[in-house]
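Crash report, auto-generated. Payload:
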Amino acid sequence: MAFDSLPVELSELPGAVPAWQAQAGTADLQNICQAVKNQGGRLIALWGTDEQDRGEGYTLHLSLAKAEGLLWLRCALPVDQPKYPDLSPIFYNAHRMQRAARDLLGIDADAADRRPWLRHAAWRDSDRPLHRAHAAGKTFEAQDSEYAFVSVTGDGVHEIPVGPVHAGTIEPGHFRFSIVGEKVLRLEDRLGYTHKGIDKRFQGMPLADGAKLAGRVSGDSTVAYAWAYCMALESVAGITPPGRALMLRALMLERERIANHLGDLGYLGNDGGLGFGLAQFMRLKEDVLRLNAKLFGHRYLMDCIVPGGVACDLGQAGFEAINIECDTLMHDVRLLKDIYDDHAGLQDRFLTCGRLTPNTAGKLGVIGLAGRASGQAWDLRAQARPAPYDLLDARMKTHKNGDVAARVNLRFEEIFESLRLLHVLVERIAPGDIAAPLPATMSAGIGLGWAEGWRGESVVALESGADGRIRSCHAHDPSWQNWPALAFAVNGNIVPDFPLINKSFNLSYSGCDL
Amino acid sequence: MYQLLKQIVKVGIKTEAPPDTDDSLRVVSQRLKQEILGVFEGSLAIRHVDAGSCNGCELEIHMLSNPYYNIEALGMKFVASPRHADLLLVTGPVARNMEVALQRTYDAMPGPKLVVAVGDCGCTGGIFGESYASRGRVANVLAVDVSVPGCPPTPVALLQGILTAISSGAGERS
Ligand code: SF4
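Recovered output after restart:
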């Protein structure tokens, strides 16, 4: 068992991914986290829930991962003094999540940084929007809050504030650059602008409807989230989707990866000064989206994964269309890769730009695509291998340079691997049902879902009530781990390279603003 | 360089695109071009603001610039500064944390100006609705000229929405 040396009593959660749950006291938290870290594990998510309707206080939740599986750790906190020890000295990425949990629920890690994270001005610091006692539509009195950015001083140092509204069509966030001349000394990002209360919105939703909301946590990763949510729900319900449904889910997830990588490669070429790349890759992406619409009824595959299975089946003609498309893509993307590789101007912009060393990436707990480009070998599809990846032999790609060039190359390699996987899926898919029925009545329970989206892992932790509704649900985006890494990657680079570096990470705002 | 040029020639011009969606696209784009020529003297400047979307609607707005839809050829351009914009394209339910920024962007635009709310979220608040964190539909915050439903709306629907906005008494408000 992956976590059996820990000083807690584990119980296994049924479902597609190897997962365990345990209760821990606040006094043991740091020891447990340190032990997981020493064993090569990491912290994925940290969040809180209100349990006062049960006559208890709060629960602090952690999800921890090792290559072999997940651990959901729950820790009860009293109502009057809901404090727990600061975990950010052990796991760097705990920092912002602890601040977010304090903003929403008042549970406090007692960390030195007292600044809010998700709370801007829409509620006061004494308000607790996630309290169950507050009705869904309740609003709070506004309170202006000045945000104290870390200021860098010295001869010739000045600041450039950017955002929340940026120059292009991208999500909102604020970047504060401290620069000297053209060189970035420090970048501090402030996010939370797209916070729309997703955790609160989940509460009380019918279990089956949650997949739709999960699929809109970060629209570009809708397949990954919907799958993770359904996986969690299927774990609670004790059902397993039919083999054909699982194969179709993997097929959708790989198509989502290909579409996003194609778009990113286009924009990366464009930001590097090669408009040709944008036109070519966006054309290919449009072709993929059109085939999605034709085969599945939605260009981005929203709502195609449903609890128990998938919403639509493919016929022989559909599989053939996918095979043909894969061959065309393989040919065209190879050709474009040669052009990118041979283009001196582009390579000059890509190479050594925005370097995130494997050492720093490891310390920050960077994961997903950005992690793999900096030597962090995490890919769920090749490690915990939730079905049907146990049958697919997905090959993980990694790079050590951690620069824009590495993130570009990795995208190319992952497209080739996904195209290979699509061929394998089409070849191996067997006839059968596309969904297993959900039980008519569902009992209260908890379940975890874990899916390797194109950006990294999406995790959904679901607790169902006895009434067939969601008691609480928390969705975690890999961008939580990776945003701080962007600030490190930008250090020492020139300001005009920021858009290129930012694009090479392409992190989600909505996914972690929730 | 040879490979690059060869690829450009081989792919050819994609903008006159194949059947189904494209018949509607062709009609929309012709009318758009005329309206833009007539009302905006050949160029419509659009400023997009994400007021709290899931980023799905942004994906489709990006696709408007791909060679199939090629909106720049129609005389439309996404601009960085609201001071240059004729039309504000707003996605998402309006997150309370974005309300001030959205309002300021609108205020910074010169009149006459148009507002198009994008997606189910922009039209009604969508799945996120109104809450402690969300003001819901865009019309709760700004006067909206046209709403384009869809989750996310397709590029053709977006073009249709923009066309409707500029042809329906363009920018009477200033
Ligand atoms: S309309 Fe749909 S795609 Fe657009 S922001 Fe809302 S949920 Fe996302």
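Post-recovery validation: Chain A has 15 helices and 13 strands.
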